[in-house]
Amino acid sequence: MPANTEIIASVTPIIERWKDEEGPLLPILNGILRELGYVPREAIPVIADALNLTRADVYGVVSFYHDYRQEPPGRHVLKLCRAEACQALGGEAVAEKLQKLLGVRFGETSIDGSVTLEPVYCLGLCACGPSAMLDGEVIGRLDDDKVAEIAAEVRS
């Protein structure tokens, strides 16, 4: 079965579940994100047709919200806070070190697929900055040792 057919087959039940509800687009996108880890471009026309929207309408929502990635993420997703409080506590140095250790820049997935590095603008740990979230688990007070631990963990 070609990849496009597999994608359509996996998103169709999610679309069917939500299409008749009020305001179905976000629940559909969230369901696809939970199922696949990303919202494939091939799903956009299928969603648009089911909801009687333009492809541009659907793409506009997918591209607006940063959590709706359009490519498969790495095995680990590392979100680093880039907000002012974390920056004031050394966030820029942490960001530079992480990018160097991981060999990846913000918004990218490493070549080996081990990690996707994403910027976020507040994790709610302002008093414990700089902070990050690795696979849904928050980490505060990042320093050189914690950065090295994170890099080793995502590479193992």
What does this structure look like?
This is Formate dehydrogenase subunit gamma. Its cofactor is [2Fe-2S] cluster. Belongs to the complex I 24 kDa subunit family. Keywords: 2Fe-2S, Iron, Iron-sulfur, Metal-binding. The protein is of the alpha+beta class. The protein has two domains: 3-64; 76-155, Glutaredoxin. The chain contains seven helices and five strands; from the N terminus they run ααααβααββββα. A five-stranded mixed β-sheet has the order 2-3-1-4-5. Helix 3 packs across helix 4 and helix 6 runs parallel beside helix 7.
Quickly describe the structure.
Keywords: 2Fe-2S, Iron, Iron-sulfur, Metal-binding. The chain has 2 domains: 3-64; 76-155, Glutaredoxin (3-Layer(aba) Sandwich).
List the helices and strands and how they pair.
Elements: H1 3-18, H2 25-36, H3 43-51, H4 55-64, E1 76-81, H5 84-88, H6 91-102, E2 108-109, E3 115-120, E4 132-134, E5 137-139, H7 144-155
Parallel strand pairs: 1-3
Antiparallel strand pairs: 1-4, 2-3, 4-5
Protein name: Formate dehydrogenase subunit gamma
Pfam families: 2Fe-2S_thioredx (PF01257)
Keywords: 2Fe-2S, Iron, Iron-sulfur, Metal-binding
CATH domain topology of the largest domain = Glutaredoxin
Structural class: alpha+beta
Number of strands: 5
Mean pLDDT rating: 94
Label the overall shape: elongated
How many domains? The number is 2
Compressed to H and E, one letter per element, the order equals: HHHHEHHEEEEH
The radius of gyration over CA amounts to 18 Å
- The amount of beta strand, in percent, is 5-15%
The level 1 CATH classification of the largest domain is Alpha Beta
Distance between the termini: 32 Å
Lateral arrangement of strands in the main beta sheet: 2-3-1-4-5
